[in-house]
Amino acid sequence: MEIIQAHERTGLKRLHDRYARRLKAMSMKVLNNDADAEDLLQDVFLEIWNRAASYNPLKGRPLSWLATLTRRRSIDRLRKRETYGRVEDRFAEETRDQASGWTHVHEELAHGEINEYLQRALATLPEAQRNALKLAYHQEMTQREIAAHNGPAARHHQDPTGTRAEEDGRLLGRIRGFALAGPSPRAK
Fold first, then answer.
1. How far apart are CA 156 and CA 138, in angstroms?
2. What does the alpha-carbon distance between residue 101 and residue 96 come to, in Å, rounded to a whole number?
């Protein structure tokens, strides 16, 4: 230990050669993971190098000090690993529970875009046709109910070139044409 306290690397190498297998075995009993035990062993020897001045031969032999450091660091690492595992599990559970929430958000965004798109499509229609569509969709009215609701004045605005069914067909054709054109770049 005196050689290490003098910061001579040969002392650390000799200490490592002499005790590394025992310390790794001690760490393995706590961690049950070879890679973690190897990694911890390197940390312990680095700590020995940095804290060599704190070693007091009156308090015990070097092996006792090394064993105490190794055991404490092994327990610390195990606790950290278990805490990390619990955090990972909790995060996985929360994200699994929220996955449907995110799907809901995505669906709301998509519905909002579709609604905006349909509003633009409706805006291209004459007011009478727009009102007829709204009544059919929102109020679930039939063609006859819409005609009765709008009264005789709405019939005067009917397209003079044909029947109500023909007018509805042209209306649906305009909507299909708008739908086939797709959303404008602004909507994307």
1. 24
2. 9
Alpha carbon distance 47, 53 (integer Å): 11
Is the pTM for the entire model greater than 0.85? no
List, as own/partner pairs, every contact residues 44-49 make where C-beta atoms lie below 8 angstroms and the sequence separation is at least 24, other chains included. Answer: 44/69, 44/70, 44/73, 45/12, 45/15, 45/16, 45/20, 47/73, 48/4, 48/12, 48/15, 49/4, 49/7, 49/12
Cβ atoms of 3 and 13 within 8 Å: the answer is: no
H or E segment and range at residue 170: helix 164-181
The model's pLDDT over 98-126, given as tens digits with 9 standing for 90+, comes to: 655 556 666 777 777 887 877 888 888 88
Q: Give the Cα separation of 181 and 27 in Å (integer).
A: 68
Structure tokens, 144: 């006859």
What distance lies between CA 82 and its chain's CA centroid?
Answer: 22
